[in-house]
Amino acid sequence: MESTQRKIIHVDMDAFYASVEQLDNPELRGKALAVGGGSSRGVVSAASYEARKFGVRSAMSGFLAKKRCPHLIFVKPRFERYTEISKKIRSIFFEYTDLVEPLSLDEAYLDVTKNKKGNPSATLIATEIRRRILEETGLTASAGISINKFIAKVASDYNKPNGQKTVNPEEVLPFLEELPIGKFYGVGKVTTEKMYQLGIFTGKDLKEKTEAYLTEHFGKSGSYYYNVVRGIHNSEVKPHRIAKSVGTEHTFFENLVSEVFMLEKLEDIANELERRIKKKNISGKTVTLKIKYSDFIQQTRSKTLPYFISDKSLILDTVKELLFQEKPKESVRLLGISLSNLNTEVKQGEQKAVAVQLKFEF
Fold first, then answer.
1. What CATH number does the domain containing 282 carry?
2. What gap in Å lies between CA 18 and CA 29, rounded to an integer?
3. 22: closest CA among 80, 95, 98, 75?
4. Statement: residue 356 has pLDDT above 50
């Protein structure tokens, strides 16, 4: 097995948005709660563990969530509050290492191979971080600890909520062989079903397939699956993740049937996008218009300009052109605008895999 000699922790807050709401409002504790999804067209952003028992999940429509859990309580998201607590949690991370890669407000990778505390045990560091998060925020977190980001990510979900799992170097291959294929990070529902059809149910089954076979059936992802099941995943923890796009979208309470109404909404969306762009001090060349119709079919239309833009008027001019490329086939329930091909993007050299001895204190 090849891997860089690292000690990686993946910290994942437990039902973060919902837990924050229950923390701030004691009346919501112990109850089935969904953040977002309160309208007929709303989508659940997060669900408490009490709601998850009824099959309520994030990205589910509010209508279906309520059908599965009739006593479900909906609350509006408060992203300023979530961001405030997320910053407190990250400040704890930085007391242990500067190699922190946030994935979202509620999860991050930490490379503690060399850490500020001089603690050789990544397991003990993870335990201490989770304890401090609980003491300083009142919220619980789970953690996964292993030799690379992939295994740490998988492990963090193993003993949720409020738990952790360490996969030591010598345990990596047995752990991956026994792992159900649906638990592999990067293998979604569609891919899981396809693997089932090919007789792949566990990591052991996956490991028996050649790289050529996996590439034939899964394209470029085939090489990824071939490597990770062997414990090979050399992606470094990157403290400064470079955004590849910035966008804003709105779902409407009533379907839009006229381009005139769509343009009004797109101007509001462009205003919001401009504020975000100016705040981040970025610009981009590619403008993308996202349209979701009443039948839930989604369409994107993009145009790349020869120069960088960040001004609302230039973005909106391009969006208008994209909108009138083709008359909408159905009424529209969602519109979005995003800017990509940003001036912040930097090409990074490929990291070479290094074979190392994995017998070290974990």
1. 3.30.1490.100
2. 10
3. 75
4. no
Is residue 147 a contact partner of residue 6, using CB atoms and an 8 Å limit?
yes
- Phi then psi for residue 242, to 5 deg, are -90, 120
Q: Which residue range(s) make up the domain with 324?
A: 245-342
Question: Does residue 347 sit within a domain?
Answer: no
Same domain, 200 and 256: no
Name every residue whose Cβ is closer than 8 Å to that of residue 74 and which is 6 or more positions away in sequence.
34, 35, 36, 37, 38, 42, 62
Whether residue 361 has pLDDT greater than 80: no
- Residue numbers in the known binding site are 12, 106
Note whether 126 and 147 are within 8 A (CB): no
**What value does the CA radius of gyration of the chain take, rounded to a whole number of Å?**
23
**Mean of the per-residue pLDDT values for the chain?**
89
Q: Which residues are annotated as a binding site for Mg(2+)?
A: 12, 106
> Do 218 and 206 lie in a common domain?
yes
CA distances from residue 101 to 26, 30, 111, 173, 245 in whole angstroms, order as listed: 32, 32, 9, 25, 18
Question: Cα(48)–Cα(28) distance, rounded to whole angstroms?
Answer: 10
Give the mean model confidence (pLDDT) for residues 269-277.
91
What angle (nearest 5°) sits at the alpha carbon of residue 108, between those of residues 150 and 203? 15
Q: Is residue 39 part of a domain?
A: yes
Side chain identity at 132, as an amino acid letter?
A: R
107 tagged catalytic: yes
Element of type H or E holding 292? strand 284-293
Number of domains the chain contains: 4
Whether the per-residue pLDDT at 207 is higher than 90: the answer is yes
Q: Which of 295, 300, 308, 355 is CA-nearest to residue 325?
A: 300
**Catalytic hit among 21, 50, 101, 107:** 107
- β-strands 107-111, 100-104 pairing: antiparallel
What is the per-residue DSSP string for 64-99? HHHHH-TTPEEE---HHHHHHHHHHHHHHHTTT-S-
DSSP alpha helix (H) spans, the chain: 16-24, 49-52, 62-68, 79-93, 122-137, 149-156, 172-178, 189-197, 203-207, 211-218, 221-228, 259-280, 312-323
Is the domain of 70 the same as that of 103?
no
| DSSP one-letter string for 206-248 | HHTS-HHHHHHHHTTHHHHHHHHTTT---PPP-SSPPP-EEEE
